[in-house]
What we know:
Blueprint: H1 7-19, H2 33-44, E1 55-60, H3 63-84, H4 88-92, E2 104-110, H5 127-145, E3 149-153, H6 158-164, E4 172-180, H7 190-193
Helix pairs in contact: 2-5
Amino acid sequence: MTDQFNQSDIDAVYRVIAARRDVRHFVPGAIDEALFARLVEAAHQAPSVGLMQPWRFIRIRSGAVREAIVKLVDEERLATADALGERGSEFMRLKVEGIRECGELLVVALMDRREEYVFGRRTLPEMDLASVACALQNMWLASRAEGLGMGWVSLFDPDKLAALLSIPEGGRPVAVVCIGHVAQFYPMPMLEMEGWEKRRKLEDLVFVDSWEQKTAPSA
């Protein structure tokens, strides 16, 4: 077949997947416009249910809007700490975003009028969100391949953020995305480094034929 990838290409894909991190620490510096365009194009090439392409990207260029988003994230951070109970103080010690420091800030939202798209969503309407997650992952992997860090921030009230950005009724923000240069990439997920959570064993998450019948994944 003429469209096969060579082994070095295949290895690179797996290497980038393994090296992807949710980045919260950035160093100053603008991102080249052509590079930024490649990242958004990578996101736009994601698969989507019924080819509905439900993602919408809002590039934040205003310093005042950036600060308003910081305020919304801070509000939700406090509310999350309260909801966590005994782990609240531990959570407050974590760095959860790099909105002020990152070179590019995006808000990724679900489109409005999604109810018009039924293909693949009649019984699973949440597949629109799954499609946006695929777009975000494409951008994440492309950013890592280009040597840039990316962080997905989900600590915000979606109604307040929608109002701030004039997102039409039916649309819904799902991610504040920070992209920028980094001094270094974390050797492992930051929440794992900080002891917040451990990576689960894959063999505990793979089943055969029914929920509790486990099998070890093939090497």
